[in-house]
Amino acid sequence: MNVNRVKQILSSSADIEVKYNGASVWIDQLNEDGRTATVHLRGPLEERTIVEIGELIEE
């Protein structure tokens, strides 16, 4: 995924499915470096992880 698409997803009210390593995640924010994003798994767990945006896949 690229930085522009991450920004579009963050500003959208739609439920857009994004996967990281095969797991469905929510994107919480695009980080200041412009190469990473903070995400968390969909579901009850709120543990956040910083990942390279190039590793995010839109389903």
Radius of gyration equals 10 Å
Tally the structural domains.
1
Number of strands: 5
Structural class: alpha+beta
Largest sheet: 5 strands, antiparallel
Provide the spatial order of strands within the biggest beta sheet.
Answer: 4-3-2-1-5
Describe the structure.
It is globular, with a radius of gyration of 10 Å. Helix content is 15%, strand content 42%. Strands 4-3-2-1-5 form a five-stranded antiparallel β-sheet. A hairpin with a 2-residue loop joins strand 1 and strand 2. It has 59 residues and is α+β, with helices and mostly antiparallel strands. The termini are close together. The protein has one helix at 3-11; strands at 18-20, 23-30, 36-41, 48-52, 56-58.
Topology of this structure?
Layout: H1 3-11, E1 18-20, E2 23-30, E3 36-41, E4 48-52, E5 56-58
Antiparallel strand pairs: 1-2, 1-5, 2-3, 3-4
List keywords for this structure.
single chain, 59 residues, alpha+beta, five-stranded antiparallel β-sheet, 15% helix, 42% strand
Care to give the gist of this entry?
With 59 residues, the chain is α+β, with helices and mostly antiparallel strands. It has one helix at residues 3-11, and strands at residues 18-20, 23-30, 36-41, 48-52, 56-58.
